[in-house]
Specification:
Elements (H helix, E strand, L loop, with lengths): L1 H11 L3 H15 L5 H13 L2 H7 L2 E8 L5 H11 L5 H9 L3 E8 H13 L3 E4 L1
Antiparallel strand pairs: 1-2, 1-3
Helix pairs in contact: 3-4, 5-6, 5-7
Amino acid sequence: MADINNIVEELSKLTVLEAAELVKALETKWGVTAAAPVAVAAAAGPAGGAAAPAEAAKDTFDVILVSVPADKKIGAIKAVREVKAGLGLAEAKALVEGAPKPVLEGAPKVDAEAAKKKLEEAGAKVELK
């Protein structure tokens, strides 16, 4: 039980973006998807009413980097690396130069909005889908 309490304490210290990256890493390692219950709820929702699927669909967002002006590329690359932890310089550069491309996929609304704000401050045009 002490080990579980220690894990809970360590996880409580994570930022929202770090927690999202942890979820993605665990999904990859274990071969599961944390979004599966939402999909099941959305599939069962139409029989219950139209409002439930609309709400469930807005729980997660994709952050799409639409374009970056040439004079803002360096700042955008730095912002992409901040938003998407663990991304190398070459990968971030390729993502910025290959726009439109997704930066984050299936991110919670709070994380998606924070990422959008950071990228827009760097001069990039961003969409949430």
